[in-house]
Predict the 3D structure of the following.
Amino acid sequence: MKIEKVEVLVSSPDRNFVTLRITTDDGLVGLGDGTLNGRELAVASYLENHVAALLIGRDAHQIEDTWQYLYRGAYWRRGPVTMAAIAAVDVALWDIKAKAANMPLYQLLGGASRTGVRAYGHASGLDVPELFDSIRKHQALGYKAIRIQTGVPGLGSVYGVASSPTVGGKRYDYEPARRTALPVEETWDTAAYLRHVPTVFEAVRNEFGPELTLLHDGHHRMTPIQAAKLGKSLEPYDLFWLEDCTPAENQEALRLVRQHTVTPLAIGEIFNTVWDYQTLITEQLIDYVRSAVTHTGGISALKKILEFAAQYQIKSGIHGPTDISPVGMAAAMHLDLAIHNFGIQEYMQHGDATNEVFIQSFSFEDGYLHPGEQAGLGVTYNDEAASKFEYQGAYLPVNRLKDGTVHDW
Ligand code: EZ4
Ligand code: CO
């Protein structure tokens, strides 16, 4: 079964997506997600100009060999652009292999280890009443686990969430990239944040009780000692995890955080290989691996990272914001269903236009996702619908302290 056609599809239904479509000589079609939020065309160009021609004529069944060929063969290893491009190829080939086997992809990954995949959603509000409202809406959708993000008094925005979460009944359409000529600039004050967040969690626990699973994302904004302080101050509210508490480049920073708090730690949405996790996993400095299938070289690579993590009782928490396309989400769900050390799956909901372009077979019931039983990933790409939504440049915000210093976003 040879690869005959490779297409790089860029469309912008609700937001920008980069999709790779591979067709074999016997007519099987596979999809892969290569979306890198705010830098989409870099991956599209990498695939178009440097990868597509290498794939023509290759045996579509040789997934591992193709992965190694693209990773080692480029000489320049790692990095989000390279790894998103390799992920797109890897996932498209898994989709094809599963279609050739006439099985849903999770069967090829070892079969189902559970009946459904527990998901968490994102509740947010500029103040506590708005946040409570958002939590109730998520509960009404079935979510049993909810990430809590809130405005900090004196700062105008809530980071990492939609600018207008419920406008027109649509959710998170531009989350959190905006289609502006220049990135939006936001203001940050870590001390105010550290004072405020525990009061919000206290209010949420008082209102919603002990059983609701709560998560929080620090978005790399703290130093290790600040993160340690936050972890400690959140202990009474029993978080499922505190995510990305410090900048992710320095794995050693987590040692200090870990010494001071028993709040579980999750990290890795901006990581792209197992090497980013080496110290974190072997020293058991984290509890959850946050990588996306899309940004870490695909199913082949993330499965290896998760199996390595499993030896240290570390579980999965695969990244699933709206900038992971429905193709990347489907890949995550198949992997979630199959691996033993599943933890939780992030699931924000895509908008109507996205669902028009990507025809999907997954279900979300009573807080649990399931990828469905269609052969392959269970996603098809509607070219006609996609042609209505042209690429538009979009940026994630840039963050500054009150004195103008650029800070981590
Ligand atoms: O801000 O995916 O945990 N989820 C997140 C995301 C990220 C975006 C960045 O592209 O932090 O919402
Ligand atoms: Co995050």
